[in-house]
């Protein structure tokens, strides 16, 4: 609140998918900034999916859980789907006990599976020959 | 490590950077005591919920961390202390889904489910202290599920 952390969360563009890798539980300000950033990026260019990898995140509390759910809900309203990947077992166990099961949030075990999920479920999407195709699963 | 038994350390909770620092300290203490990964994660998550309450609802305060030893088991006690407006209706505040802060209303009730002992002391106008304790023992504890 008093500090706006200088470290914002980077967003990579893989064709028409945005990839976010959270390195640890981000500061609250950075998480809200990410939500804002993703919404604007989705509005600016054709984005069909957002993948948020949390495999390095040690805890997801109700604040971060809410931010993830809101990112997914906002993306959904702008025709993009969100997949959260790599949740650690201890985090999943804790979230269930916390009561935060995030039913609207799609998950996958890893980024490759998430990209496959997004690709497989949108057969009609138009490929972006310059960059999009090379970033699909298998190239990682 | 036994030299630190009973020692209380205190950190300020005044910004989201302080929340991250407090989480880091709890993780270190819990790992140092030998808590397993799931227990660490639960305690850390509870600490994060409570410290955020201190920040958002209490207007800031502090977290105290104490290593306990009752002769049979060791444990870790966390207190989040603020001198904010207090909680008018504690029963209501402990209800899943009730929120005044625009959150999901799982902070207090969720944190209580994640730990073995939970006490809340609050007086309107004088502040709130929430204390949670996790013991390092093989004894099973009663579960209070939500599902």
Task: Tell me what you see in this structure.
The complex is a heterodimer of chains A (140) and B (147). Chain A contains four helices and five strands. Chain A is of the alpha/beta class. Chain A has one domain: 2-Layer Sandwich (Transcription Regulator spoIIAA). In chain A, strands 1-2-3-4-5 form a five-stranded mixed β-sheet. In chain A, helix 2 links the parallel strand 3 (49-53) and strand 4. Chain B has a single domain (2-136), classed as Heat Shock Protein 90 (2-Layer Sandwich). Chain B contains four helices and five strands; from the N terminus they run E-H-H-E-E-H-H-E-E. Chain B has a five-stranded antiparallel β-sheet, covered by helices on one side. In chain B, a hairpin with a 3-residue loop joins strand 4 and strand 5 (127-136). In chain B, helix 1 (16-33) runs antiparallel to helix 2 (37-56) and helix 2 (37-56) runs antiparallel to helix 4. The longest helix of chain B has 20 residues, at 37-56. The mean pLDDT of chain B is 87. The A-B interface holds A 1-3, 5, 25, 27-29, 58-63, 65-66, 88-91, 93-94, 96-101 and B 14-17, 19-20, 23, 27, 37-38, 40-42, 44-45, 48-49, 52, 55, 96, 103-104, 106-107, 109-111, 113-114, 145-147. Chain B: InterPro entries: HATPase_C_sf, HATPase_dom.
Topology pattern of chain A, helix = H, strand = E: EEHEHEHEH
Mean pLDDT of chain A: 83
Order of strands across the biggest sheet of chain B?
1-2-3-5-4
Named CATH topology of chain B: Heat Shock Protein 90
Structural class of chain B comes to alpha+beta
- The proportion of residues in beta strands of chain A is 15-25%
Give the N-terminus to C-terminus distance of chain B in angstroms: 39 Å
CATH architecture of chain B: 2-Layer Sandwich
Q: Count the helices of chain A. How many?
A: 4
Rg calc of chain B: 15 Å
How would you describe the oligomerization state of the chains in this entry? heterodimer
Give the proportion of residues in helices of chain B. 25-40%
Protein name (chain B): ATP-binding protein
InterPro entries (chain B): HATPase_C_sf, HATPase_dom
Organism (chain B): Streptomyces plicatus
Domain Histidine kinase/HSP90-like ATPase (chain B): 38-138
């Amino acid at each position: 609140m008093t500090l706006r952390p200088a470290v914002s969360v980077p967003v990579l563009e893989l064709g028409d998918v945005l990839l976010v890798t959270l390195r640890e539980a981000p500061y609250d300000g950075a998480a809200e900034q990410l939500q804002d950033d993703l919404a604007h990026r989705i509005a600016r260019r054709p984005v069909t999916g957002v993948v948020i990898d949390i495999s390095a995140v040690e805890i997801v509390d109700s604040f971060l859980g809410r931010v993830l759910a809101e990112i997914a809900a906002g993306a959904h309203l702008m025709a993009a789907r969100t997949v959260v990947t790599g949740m650690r077992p201890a985090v999943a166990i804790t979230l269930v006990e916390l009561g935060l099961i995030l039913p609207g949030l799609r998950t996958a075990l890893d980024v490759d599976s998430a990209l496959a999920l997004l690709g497989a479920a949108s057969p009609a999407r138009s490929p972006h020959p310059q960059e999009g195709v090379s970033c699909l699963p298998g190239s990682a | 490590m036994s030299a630190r038994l009973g020692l209380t350390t205190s950190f300020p909770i005044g910004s989201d950077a302080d929340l991250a620092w407090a989480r880091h300290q709890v993780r270190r203490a819990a790992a140092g005591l030998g808590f397993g990964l799931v227990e660490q994660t639960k305690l850390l998550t509870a600490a994060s919920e409570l410290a955020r309450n201190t920040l958002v609802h209490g207007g800031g305060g502090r977290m105290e961390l104490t290593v306990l030893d009752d002769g049979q088991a060791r444990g870790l006690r966390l207190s989040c202390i603020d001198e904010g407006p207090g909680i008018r209706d504690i029963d209501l505040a402990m209800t899943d889904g009730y929120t005044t802060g625009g959150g999901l209303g799982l902070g207090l009730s969720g944190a209580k489910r994640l730990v073995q002992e939970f006490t809340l002391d609050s007086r309107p106008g004088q502040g709130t202290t929430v204390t949670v304790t996790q013991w390092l023992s093989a004894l099973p504890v009663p579960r209070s599920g939500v599902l």
